Amino acid sequence: MGESSRADDDTEVGQRGHATSAGAVVQAGRDAVVTVEHHVHHRGASVLPVRALLISLACATGLVLVLRGGVFVWAAPCVVVLVALLLLWPTRRGTTAGQVFLVMSAFTQKYWVLDFLQRLHHSLDRKGLDLVLKVPDRDHDASALAHDLRRVLTARSGYLGGFVWPTELGRSRPDLVEFCTELALPVVFTDMEPFEDESEYPANTAFVGYRGGDLGEEAGRWLVGHLRRRGVRRPHVLIVASHEHPDRQNRCADLLRAGFGGISITIDDTCDFRRSRAYDAVQAHIRSSGTPLDAVFCTSDDMALGAVDAIRANTSQHTSDTVVVGVDGNPEARSLIAAAVSPLRATVVQDSHRLAECAVEVLQKMLERRHTAKRTILKPEVFQAPWTTGIDLGA
């Protein structure tokens, strides 16, 4: 068990420097700044040398005419007109693509985060924009976030606007307000809604994303329908979670309690979205519990995969019918669910493509000074095993 945890942690650390396969990725310094660069071809770059050559030829031709024919009166005006036309010849000046920033609160959720980055990069690239990525030196830490926000402010003249993933809102909210006010450029928040009321948002900001409570609600509804279909009256459920996004586990637990009067729910919020920590948490729970474990809800797919590893590694009869539900919809989780060969039966999908497209669209509207809503809330969907499609999710 210890070896498995260490191996997973090493994998996570080893992948921190690889943001995307598209474009050039450079990671430098303590700030862990990753810049996705694009090559901009300046079509006007070759025009000036050609123009200079033509002007030189025109002057030389005029000089020859003067020397050979002695017709200075006619040659000089011709040369002047020709040079003037060449100087006024319109050029297409090459322009450098605009830059937008993305300040992230975490970078170790390997699958979903990297998929989102790739899709955001592609969406911006289609609009001629480059992405500058700020990666925290410590995940889910308000101090690390504040450091990266200050770094953006020092280079704000190079940006058109950007995106921010907030974290530890109790500590970071004042920093976010100060940052947006001083930056005075469009800022789109995503991943976590930073303010409880629209009136609290600075004028140059908006939010695009999924609400944590909605994700937890979808998971809770799926579990209630599944457990009722199985005829379980007093289920035992383990929720594997993190201190971040507490609405996910809290809303799921609320729906489960409303659906079953005698339900037993254990919440472990120390797993920090890490597969290895989820593995350890599920193993510890199985060893300490003397009752069947009916379901495990994990607030990320990485943790759900860790829960599957733990259940597979255990031969206890208490886990023979255990189902696992995750959040995110990452490729590995989807493949495992579709194959129907593991306890992982469903995941609540945060569509990274849709999120990236909507976030870029809102930023573009703000850059063009068009009206946009302060909040754009996306609706999650459940991806589930083929044989569970008949479950009544509204139960």
Which short descriptors sum up this protein?
single chain; 395 residues; alpha/beta; Rossmann fold; 6-stranded mixed sheet; 12 helices; disordered C terminus
Chain-wise SSE layout:
Layout: H1 2-14, E1 24-28, E2 33-37, H2 47-69, H3 72-87, E3 98-103, H4 110-126, E4 129-134, H5 142-154, E5 161-164, H6 169-183, E6 187-189, E7 205-209, H7 212-230, E8 236-240, H8 246-259, E9 264-268, H9 275-288, E10 295-298, H10 301-312, E11 323-328, H11 331-339, E12 344-349, H12 352-367, E13 375-377, E14 381-384
Parallel strand pairs: 3-4, 3-5, 5-6, 6-7, 7-13, 8-9, 8-10, 10-11, 11-12
Antiparallel strand pairs: 1-2, 2-4, 12-14
Structure description:
By secondary structure, the chain is of the alpha/beta class. The chain folds into three domains: 165 residues, 3-Layer(aba) Sandwich (Rossmann fold), CATH 3.40.50.2300; 45 residues; 137 residues, Rossmann fold (3-Layer(aba) Sandwich). Helices cover 46% and strands 17% of the residues. The protein has twelve helices and 14 strands. The strands form two sheets. The protein has an eight-stranded mixed β-sheet with strand order 1-2-4-3-5-6-7-13, with helices on both faces. It has a six-stranded mixed β-sheet with strand order 9-8-10-11-12-14, sandwiched between helices. Helix 10 links the parallel strand 10 and strand 11. Helix 4 crosses helix 12, helix 5 runs parallel beside helix 6 and helix 9 packs across helix 10. The N terminus and C terminus are likely disordered.
